[in-house]
Amino acid sequence: MVSGAGFSVDPAELQKFSQFLSGTTQPAVQDAANRMQAANGFDNAAFGILLAQVLAVPSRITMGVITGEIGKLAGDIGKSAADVKKAAETYATHDANTAQGLSTFETELGK
Predict the structure, then answer these.
(1) For residue 31, is it within any domain?
(2) CB 24 within 8 A of CB 30
(3) Residue 21 within any structural domain of the chain
(4) Domain of 62, in residue numbers
(5) Does residue 61 belong to any structural domain of this protein?
(6) Domain tally for the chain?
(7) Which residue(s) pair with 3 in the sheet?
(8) CA 41: distance to chain centroid?
(9) Who contacts 26 (Cβ-Cβ below 8 Å, separation ≥6)?
(10) Considering the chain, what is the average pLDDT of its residues?
């Protein structure tokens, strides 16, 4: 575990958070995008004949844009999960390398 004055990092917690992002959050957001996409094929007659021409097309365009943005968000969450996982691995590697480097000074450290 990397630590300092008031600062510590537990790589296991970062791994856990990365798994939560990729295993729970990202699929939930992607599911929302999929549901928005499915809802975008609504029956424009719901607005009535006159209003269908005025409201249906802009509504479909807006829903398409929102669906695209939610899809991008799902991708960004996946990238964040990968970045958090990489950070955890970096901290763990740094800890191991530092411990190995300090082990050459065991005599000086009184061990």
Answers:
(1) no
(2) no
(3) no
(4) 45-88
(5) yes
(6) 1
(7) 8
(8) 28
(9) 74, 77, 78, 81
(10) 86
